[in-house]
Amino acid sequence: MKQLDDYAIAELFAAKIAACQNVFYERNGQTAGDWMEQNADDDPGKFIAELSPGEASIVPQGYTVKSVSPTHPNTNFGGFSKAIVRRIASAVGVSYNRLAHDYESVNYSSLREASIDEAKTYITLQRFLVDNWKAIEYELFVKSYLTNTSTTLRPSKFKDYCNYQFICRRDGLFDAAKEIVSVERKLKLGLSNPIIELESMGMDVEEVLDGWTRWKEMLEKRNLNFDVENPLPLDVMQQVNDENLEENP
User: Fold this and answer.
1) CA separation (Å) from 189 to 110, 181, 238?
2) Nearest Cα to 99, choosing from 76, 113, 115?
3) What whole-number distance in Å separates Cα of residue 182 and Cα of residue 172?
4) Are 75 and 61 in contact, with CB atoms under 8 Å apart?
5) pLDDT at position 213, please?
6) C-beta separation of 74 from 18 below 8 A
């Protein structure tokens, strides 16, 4: 990535140089000299220092004007940079489009597939950090606390104190409505339970339940009720399609 950044900077400087009209003077043999050494009756000519549209000038005798126009920016710069970024994205396990913020030629399916792969990568990294850092750090902290602090906790029950679980952050995918429908169906079929689903979303079960308890207490205190008698179906689009089918069979 550092080399790619250096290449982009070099290409930018080359493009700035190419944007300037570069004029150089080349001597023709031994007869070249500046205009002060020429015969005053002849047109002495002059060295061109600035260029203007439609301007015509005569250069000093014995000199030939040559212009240099570098071919920058390079036409392959975009494709080359994209290829390098794709290799970097593949190496770190993320999608090229998110790494480069390039959504020029993507669609919903490709973005969803890339997000699923990225989620698997992040889960693997999270578990690695938990197993090789956070879990060790926590257990060392508990040992130090039990041995160096005057407390009623008994060091003999160290294993009981280490009955813990790190809940990692989880991000949802593109279609939240379909994910909710999927969770609802898994719960109905007995393929999962609320604890698994909450923890899979990075939520603490006890915090969620405590939040609901506080919410109900606050409603009762204010004599409010937000219970919905006829809640909306989970698959709203399916309901709309069914209603349209009934109206236009």
Assistant:
1) 30, 12, 20
2) 115
3) 13
4) no
5) 93
6) no
- The number of beta carbons lying within 10 Å of the beta carbon of residue 186 is 14
Backbone angles phi, psi at 105, to 5 degrees: -130, 60
The per-residue pLDDT for range 149-171, each reduced to its tens digit, is 766 666 666 777 788 888 888 77
Domain boundaries defined on the chain: 22-68
State the Rg of the chain over Cα: 36
State pTM to two decimals: 0.50
pLDDT digits (tens, 9 = 90+) for 21-76: 666 666 676 555 554 455 545 556 677 667 666 666 677 777 777 776 667 777 78
Neighbours of 193 (CB within 10 A): 10
